[in-house]
Amino acid sequence: MAQAQITRDPFGNLPTGEAVDLYTLINPSGASAQITNYGGIVIALYVPDSAGVLGNIVLGHNDLDAYVAGKAYFGALVGRYANRIAHGRFSLQGAEYRLAANDGPHHLHGGRRGFDKALWRAAGALGPDGPTLELRYVSDDGEEGYPGALEVVVTYTYRIDAAPWTGNADVQKAFPMVDRVVRGAGTMQLKQNFKRTGNGWVPAEV
């Protein structure tokens, strides 16, 4: 049986010249997850089939440039808000906020430069539960139109036990992120609420 480990390799450079890394988390069974600090994207997830042969079960691209140019959100973290906000505006505590409109007149998955297009600070480690990758990002006040600064921390652990979201904000606001909980060997539980949609695939109820 292989030892648990985590590796870091170059994954290319952004148009700004910033270097992007690819982290590979390997658990003792030999199964592995590849995650980049650009958008927190899960590039690949290798798990065994019924015959024990490892294969990638994640849909995505082969290189960084395709992810930078892409609009499909393959494997990425999205936010501040996942899904659409009608007409790119909302009211909070008596003030109206206008967001970046990137889906016709609507705001989708955090805007033109949501979490999926951000370069996250990354730190890999071998913990008691297995190889772990921690990603951090600070969304500044006014980014894509949102009020207040927001610090987000995402942790991937491949045994796997959890990929929790935590956040600290300096103003009151909704923080409706999908809670993904993965437990055991090769089993996954996904907690998500599905809403009816109206015109433009905008949620019709909250």
Please describe the topology of this protein.
Elements: E1 5-13, E2 19-26, E3 32-36, E4 42-48, E5 54-56, H1 64-69, E6 84-85, E7 89-92, E8 95-98, E9 107-108, E10 121-127, E11 130-139, E12 150-157, E13 165-169, E14 179-183, E15 187-191
Antiparallel strand pairs: 1-2, 2-3, 3-4, 4-5, 6-9, 7-8, 10-11, 11-12, 12-13, 14-15
Helix content: under 10%
Mean pLDDT: 80
Strand proportion, as a percent range, falls in 35-45%
Give the second-level CATH assignment, the architecture.
Distorted Sandwich
Number of separate strands: 15
Distance linking N and C termini: 47 Å
String of helices and strands? EEEEEHEEEEEEEEEE
Can you offer a commentary on this structure?
- It is a single chain.
- This protein has a single domain (5-201), classed as Beta-galactosidase, Chain A, domain 5.
- It has 1 helix and 15 strands; from the N terminus they run E-E-E-E-E-H-E-E-E-E-E-E-E-E-E-E.
- It has one helix at 64-69, and strands spanning 5-13, 19-26, 32-36, 42-48, 54-56, 84-85, 89-92, 95-98, 107-108, 121-127, 130-139, 150-157, 165-169, 179-183, 187-191.
- A 5-stranded antiparallel β-sheet has the order 1-2-3-4-5, with no helix packed on it. Strands 10-11-12-13 form a 4-stranded antiparallel β-sheet, with no helix packed on it.
- It is elongated.
- Mean pLDDT is 80; it is low at 160-167 and 171-194.
